[in-house]
Design a protein that fits this description.
It contains 16 helices and 37 strands. The chain is an alpha+beta fold.
Amino acid sequence: MGDAQGAERAGAHQHRRACVDNGAFRQWTAMEVHGLSDWAYGGGPPPSTTATGTVTLVEGVTFCISGQVGDIHAGDGQGLFFRDTRFLSRWELDIDRVPVEPLAVHCPAPYAATFIGRRPPRHGLADSTLLVVRRRYVGNGMREDITIRNLGRESVAVRVTLSAYTDFAGLFEVKQGRVHHREGIESTAGVDGLWMSYQAGSDARAVTVAASGEPITTTGRLVWQPVIAPRAEWVVSVQVVPSIDGRDVPTSYSPGQPIEQTRPAEALAAWRAHTPAISTPDEPLTRLLATSAGDLGGLRIFDTDHPDRPVIAAGAPWFMTLFGRDALLTSWMLLPLDASLALGTLQTLARLQGKTVEPRTEEEPGRILHEVRSGLDTKLALGGGNAYYGSIDSTPLFVMLLGELRRWGLAGGDVKALLPHADQALEWIERYGDRDGDGFVEYQRATDSGLPNQGWKDSFDGISFASGQLAEPPIALAEVQGYVYAAYLARAHFARGDGDEDLAQHWAAKAADLKRAFNETFWLPDRGYYALALDAAKRPVDALASNMGHCLWTGIVDEDKATSVADRLLSPDMFTGFGVRTLAASMGAYNPMSYHNGSIWPHDNAIVAAGLMRYGCVDAAQRVATALFDAAEHLGGQLPELFCGFDRTEFADPVPYPTACSPQAWAAASPQFLMRTLLRFDPWIPFGRVWCAPAVPDRYLPLRVQSLRLAGAEVTIDVGRDGWSLSGLPEGIELVRAPRQPLTAATPTPLTKEHPKNLG
């Protein structure tokens, strides 16, 4: 996401998620912020190449962007990066002082690539007899095995040169095309390799390039002069080891170790074995779900001090770090795949929860962060430091997810231990989120260096009136009120489960008051939809947008308004045939090629579909789901971060957004969440029930879901045209063969089997 890409986003803020060249992503290894310690790899899908000719490999905060022959060229955003620092800015191989010609690239794993090339034919000859194979593995640095095979009939004497340099540039410098020359980089040539270092105050960075084969070393170069016999090959291995503040990073790939026995390979295999299997005769959907599951495995990152606490990173390669909103929503969507992701996300965010008031980073007591960063150039990151808290929705989403995790019956003790953090989050909502005491939660950045918009549509022009005029902060977003409503209900249910009826009634009453005020204030009766937001003057921001689909999902919408909302979301103004637009085509700010003002976001659509299904709008939910599945088929079997919002009748294939990240966390999670929505699978383990009433379109039948993990059991669901079955529920859990309807209530009643409809 270099500077050019940022410009293409029409002024969008530097933090937005977009990935260079469709690179795949993997692990986040070693983030240290507020005591957050080293992280380890979680496995994932293969990387990809694009027409631009670059290849991206990622394993956590290690990622490498290179050309298709494997070379890293200086000056164009390529490099080997670790923990937000570029440790290689140049990595070029030549044979007899001639660059290698590329033939093919194979990417068997997210962290691995095989670059196949040749030495160009000698003068006067049509064919080359020297095959060059570079096998690269990234993770806590990089290992590269170089093989030169002599396919000729005579011995060949060659000169092999590998040039290696570093600028120790920060991630944000590279992204923004603002790399500055660093004085004081030292470079040393040793017996078997190179060593480069840089000191900036108390921060020290170094990189070692060590090689086998007894190279001749000079500053920035390794040179070998082998003689290769006919039909023989010559092999050397080169290891790149970063060093942070005087400590070498432990390599993921020891010299000579079989790759399948390395930590990244074993983690990938374990994730694939753990993931539920979904089968359907619709082959594109089968491929999409398999790709989605693999992508998501690649986003898991682990705190090595707490290996039982996986979290989800936002996207690759530039966003292999923890983003509060992204991690919370993504892990919610992934509960059927791995509920431990939700628990790990909550535990990690609780550990980093705001403790003090700091305007630069927008930290406040109880607030859940927006993102964390490391590196030498964090002054260029949001807030100018390691953590930035400028998100209006991460905090209520934290409480929401905790309540949902309780429904799934996972780790009751661990969930209960997080309640104090939920209470701190709710205190933040009331004290800092509701800035003026009117009952609604609104945002306004603390300084001019913060995000101007702090909901998920966080571009500078993401919130506007129907006329196109931008809303002035403080801004109260519609969907945020829904999140807060659901957070209040979640806390009420926790209190009721603990037998504290007074506390339960307190939070239930707050939820009821908020719902009543929301439907009175945000509803636009002459339009038949909800306002996108309230502006500083408490005027309804009257743009027709997708945000109200999130309100359906949370249950804050009055039932008598749901049909009108559904009709608006599925109107030609909003629905393209490939999904629901972020902003209606009739709005003044509409632009189908924009980031947030008319584009289509898969995660947004998945939440809209869940909201439609919640209110019984089955046909509408199915239309959104199938449209998104169709879009994925046209987009190569994978859903990107977003794509353009042109109508399907105008262009038969979805039009890609030029800098969309793919794969990306909540986009990759969307197909899994859509499947749960179509199955209408709704567990409430503490209550002793699971509701299920599949509403799967015929084109995907028969459908089978195996090894869906629920409260320590593995559930299997079979859906056919003539009926469905569910087996494997935990002992003592009752199956209710109906959707949990109605799924919202003005005032939740006590949790009893006589009142299942009012569970909120």
